[in-house]
Amino acid sequence: MILPSKLPQIGTSIFTVMSQLAQQHGAINLSQGFPDFNCPPELTDLVSYYLKQGYNQYAPMAGVLKLREQISSKTEKMYGFSPNPDTEITITSGATEALYAALAAILRSGDEVIVLEPAYDSYVPAILLNGGKPVFVPLQVPSFKIDWQLVKAAITTRTRAILLNSPHNPSGAILSASDLTTLAELVGDTNIVIISDEVYEHMVFDSQPHLSLLTQPELAGRSFVISSFGKTYHATGWKVAYCVAPPTFTTEFRKVHQYLTFSTVTPIQYALADFLDNQEHYLTLPAFYQAKRDLFHHLLQDSGFTLKPSAGTYFQLVSYENITQESDLEFARRLTTEVGVAAIPISVFYHQQTDHGLLRFCFAKNEDTLQAAAEKLCRL
User: Fold this and answer.
1) Within 10 A of 100 (CB to CB), how many other CB atoms are there?
2) What share of the chain is helix, strand, coil (3-state, %, to 5)?
3) Which of 170, 171, 201, 237 has its CA 20 to 30 Å from the CA of residue 48?
4) pTM recorded for the entire structure
5) DSSP code of residue 364
6) Is 77 a member of any domain?
7) What is the pLDDT of residue 9?
8) Which residues have a Cβ under 8 Å from the Cβ of 245 and sit 6 or more positions away?
9) What is the mean pLDDT of the chain?
10) Dihedral in degrees, nearest 10, Cα atoms 36, 41, 45, 47
11) 91-113 pLDDT, tens per residue?
């Protein structure tokens, strides 16, 4: 029996491929974006407490109320916007689910979604599965800034949404105040919805602020804004995230969410609600990861790689033009199998596999891991 594919051009995620290759060859895995250190012990103690206290049945579909109330308070402190916990905040099983639910809630067959490339690999499949058409706009290389004239030119009467990501994976670029102003002007007289992937919101460096779309009322009123506890608390395996959106958006979002996962793991929600009182963790996270970025820069200063600016996330782009003329995919594979360090080739983030000769390393690792990886990379 042959099952016709709804995603005939989509294979296994590059993150799975490179992590498996790293495991097979005993390579240091700087490819997939996960820390090799644990989440705060106080947080795991809270999870254990709620597990043992019997908080192990279904959570409310929208999420534990106390957690939604804590998110509202945190959002107000960070961005000056206080979303209603009952009608504007939904807890999801990871940011990938939130992205999918947002797209499913708004798309009809033939609707267009503007996707800025390079783009995280879950965006396009979610658009296609919901009958939408991705319209690709390239970011400027090497800055990875948005060319708003290209975005404007890509807008048609079928444009339903623009998908943004800041801090940006894979480049580490961030939105500026002028970006938000231009975006607000661009969509002001339209019915275009913004889906804003802000999972790295607490990883912005060099004293720069994270400019969430929630900081501008005219954008907040037309946006699904998605955040991730997994990224913030070094617990990517928990797959707990949330979406902030206007009440009418949230109503449609929850209609999809309830039939995707219905609810998210209960004891972890209660633990996160308690731990959000600890503001120090997320307020000091930018300095924590900037120190790792700067250490990685220092360790690679004598290598053949050219490091590109990383204003946010826990990723570092490098050019290898002084080392080899191989394609980025070929070099990433050889780096894993022969050198012993796994990276992600940037071409996989483009629908036409555009190759700029760049690799992405994840520096969310212990110092010993970064040191060992750098020693191998500096031998090239």
Assistant:
1) 22
2) 45, 15, 40
3) 201
4) 0.96
5) -
6) yes
7) 86
8) 88, 90, 102, 223, 224, 225, 253
9) 97
10) -40
11) 999 999 999 999 999 999 999 99
d(CA 101, CA 95): 10
The C-alpha R_g of the chain, in whole angstroms, comes to 20
> In this structure, are residues 172 and 363 in contact, taking their beta carbons and an 8 Å threshold?
no
Domain closes at, from 258, 279, 300 = 279
Q: How far apart are CA 351 and CA 27, in angstroms?
A: 28
The answer to the question of residue 48 being in a domain is no
Mark whether 71 and 32 lie in a shared domain: no
- Are 359 and 317 in contact by the 8 Å Cβ rule? The answer is yes
Look at residue 162 and tell me if it is in a domain. yes
Number of domains in the chain: 2
In this structure, are residues 246 and 271 in contact, taking their beta carbons and an 8 Å threshold?
no
Q: 108: how many CB neighbours lie within 10 A of its CB?
A: 10
User: Which of 311, 315, 331, 312 is closest to 323 using CA atoms?
Assistant: 331
Q: 1-10, 57-66, 271-280: lowest mean pLDDT where?
A: 1-10
- What is the residue range of 35's domain? 14-39+280-377
Per the structure block, which two tokens stand in for 351? 């629908």
Distance CA 12, CA 16 (A): 7
The amino acid that residue 21 corresponds to is L
CA distance from start to end of the chain: 49
13 pLDDT exceeds 90? no
CA diameter of the chain = 58
CB 259 within 8 A of CB 267: no
Q: Amino acid identity, residue 195?
A: I
Strands of the sheet containing 112-117, edge to edge, are: 89-92, 241-244, 223-228, 193-197, 159-165, 112-117, 133-138
274 with 284, same domain?
Answer: no
Q: How many residues does the chain have?
A: 380
Q: Name the residue with higher pLDDT: 12 or 37.
A: 37
Per-residue pLDDT, 340: 97
Q: Are 312 and 338 in a shared domain?
A: yes
